[in-house]
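Wed. Picked up where I left off yesterday with Diguanylate cyclase. The coffee machine is broken again, so keeping this brief.
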Amino acid sequence: MALWARRWPTHTESVAFAVVSNAAIALSCLAYPNPTGALTGCISFATIAAYIAFFHSTALVVYNFAVTTAVAVIAALRIALSGHPAMAVVDLFIVVQINIAMPVAIHVLVRALGVDLARADRDPLTGLLNRRAFYAHSAKLLTGGPSHGGTHLVMVVVDLDDFKRINDTYGHQVGDEALISVGQALSRAVVGFPAEIGRSGGEEFVVAAVLETDDPAPLAEQICGEIAALPEPVTASVGTACIALDASRGNHESTLDRMVRAADAAMYEAKRAGGNKCHHLGEPYW
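Structure written out below (tokens, as returned):
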């Protein structure tokens, strides 16, 4: 616990805490001379059960309950053998009920909240990451990119050309369908790359991908081609910026923000050149 006062525990440390706490409660109850007190003490398992249900897997919850049941049954048998079988059954039922109800309720709540949190990270129309979630997920690419064999992170800003015309000419339903199709096209374009895709607003999308080279042109051209090939009458201007993973030190959010601004500037260069083009802004861009 003193360790937790300084920092959040690792997963291994947290599991160790849960297992050791479980064992300590079990030994205390088994060693208690009064069997009624020992069975009542099994209610303490519910506290560690709640912790496990909140932070860990179902398997660890089941392990904790198995130990709880074994210790409680031993204590109940001691009560029954002392001449109080009815008390043993009632007390055992109460202990088991508490140790089932609390972790199950917490486990269900955590899973339900997890679904809501996952939805909160997504753009409701395209299903892509929203801007906040995109930054959070892309920061993991900066730190974990080398584990994928990559050396550079490329940031891609995609802006659909003359999208207002599509809405005005064909209606907002077609416009929405085009946005969904573009999201799917971006997903196809980054197959094979560790990548994150987001919709940053309106008709603008962002892509972060780990590459084995500092040349983002093939990926950018693939994105342009996938969008141009859609059945909807839509093209895109694509801007890119790239950084070596070993150069991305310090505040990852700040690094990503600068990369997005650089890729955005490159995208506007592509748009000024007529659209349906790719433009790369080379370093240094900050």
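Quick read: The mean pLDDT is 87.
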